[in-house]
Amino acid sequence: MITPRRNSQGGDTLVDARPIVSLIVTAHNEEARIREKLENTLAIAYPGELLEIIIASDCSTDKTDEIVASYSQRGVRLVRADERKGKEYAQLCAIREAKGDILVFSDVATQIEPDALNKLVRHFNDPSVGAVSSEDRFVSQDGTIAGEGAYVKYEMWLRRLESQRAGLVGLSGSFFAARKEICDEWDIASPSDFNTALNCAKRGLVAISVPDVVGIYSDVKSPALEYRRKLRTIIRGMTAISRHLEVLNPLKMGLFSFQVWSHKILRWAVPWFMALLLFTSALLSAQHWLYAAVLVAQLGFYALVVVGYLSQDLRSHTLIKIPYFFVQVNLAIASATVMFLRGERMTTWTPSKR
To answer: Which of 34, 47, 132, 294 pairs as cysteine with 281 (C-beta 3.0–4.6 A)?
Structure first.
């Protein structure tokens, strides 16, 4: 529980009701971007005596640790993992040393606005809130804030709905916060955003998404790298569910379980339903005009996807961009499912180049 601090004389005058915050930034071989992240972090408008900045190095082998160490006089702490076991293990090493009431997690690629922490900690005044997730904002390659795509708008809308019910089933992994006690159970083989949401649900608390706190980051430069990022994210999500099957039991987890089924499991089933629909409509198209119309509609939809694949210029048009992105996501889900069933897991990480 967060409690206001008293003045040094022991009186009842409130000095600052804000909690001590430990901001944990996970890094692996980020020498090219770590200075920018450190300067962005040091520009945050939160009382210095209440803010602890920790860089959790996942056994970086370049100059990342050296650069971070050079900021020690400015209050930045380096916590280096004793061995490379992945992002969540590096976070766990930092959690063990963190002094804050609230732990904030961020990635090197994510820029945080100066007033973000002040906005963020206010939401913990509600004792039912165990964690708070930022909303995502993308920056185009020319440095301007990019307009939200249909998928991002849809995802943020889902998060807001979940926030009003049993809480998020997954936070924004690039920028979120949690009460320190929520992080007592930390499964290093599961994504930290899912760990946090699950731990909140277990304690009868909620994880919420708030539109007034944003994490700003660039799009991944290469489509191939973006596709691999999707594969990694999906496989890690499937791994998390497989390690915590209790989340699928509505008798144990209630509405939170329903949200996991609808947001995760059914979403992962979409590519297989798409394939089934195409197969059955082709099989039945000669028997009734309705089946034929459904088949033609699907073929037209996939034709737009092919056009988008062949022409990057045409891919920018909404009519083509949305089908192309939808199919790309579901191809990644299908591929990741096959990889997961074959036993592939992704624990260690290499940050995507942006």
So the answer is: 294
Say how many CA atoms lie within 13 Å of 292 toward its Cβ.
4
Q: Where along the chain do its domains lie?
A: 5-219, 220-354
Cβ neighbours, 10 Å, residue 287: 9
CATH for 5-219?
Answer: 3.90.550.10
Provide long-range contacts, Cβ within 8 A and 24+ apart, for 341-344: 344/235
Q: What is the pLDDT of residues 25-62, one digit of tens each?
A: 999 999 999 999 999 999 999 999 999 999 999 999 99
Instruction: Give dist(CA 32, CA 164) in Å, integer.
Output: 40
**Hey, how many other C-beta atoms are within 10 angstroms of the C-beta on 343?**
6
Q: What is the DSSP letter of 126?
A: S
Q: Using the 8-state DSSP alphabet, how is residue 10 labeled?
A: S
DSSP-assigned letters across all residues of 45-59 = -S-GGGEEEEEEESS
Distance from the first to the final alpha carbon of the chain: 38
Helix spans in 244-347 (H): 250-253, 255-260, 266-284, 289-310, 318-341
CA atoms of 351 and 107, how far apart (whole Å): 9
Sign of CA dihedral 217, 222, 223, 225: negative
Determine contact, residues 61/165, Cβ cutoff 8 Å: no
pLDDT in tens, 112-159: 999 999 999 999 999 999 999 998 877 665 554 444 466 777 888 888
Taking a C-beta distance cutoff of 8 angstroms, is the pair 69, 142 a contact?
no
Helix 289-310 / helix 318-341 crossing angle, nearest 10 deg: 90
Question: Which candidate, 46, 21, 23, 175, places its Cα nearest to that of 101?
Answer: 21
Instruction: State how far the alpha carbon of 7 is from the alpha carbons of 49, 199, 222, in Å.
Output: 14, 34, 53
pTM (2 decimals)?
A: 0.85
Using an 8 Å Cβ cutoff, are 231 and 336 in contact? yes
Determine how β-strand 102-107 pairs with β-strand 175-179. Answer: antiparallel
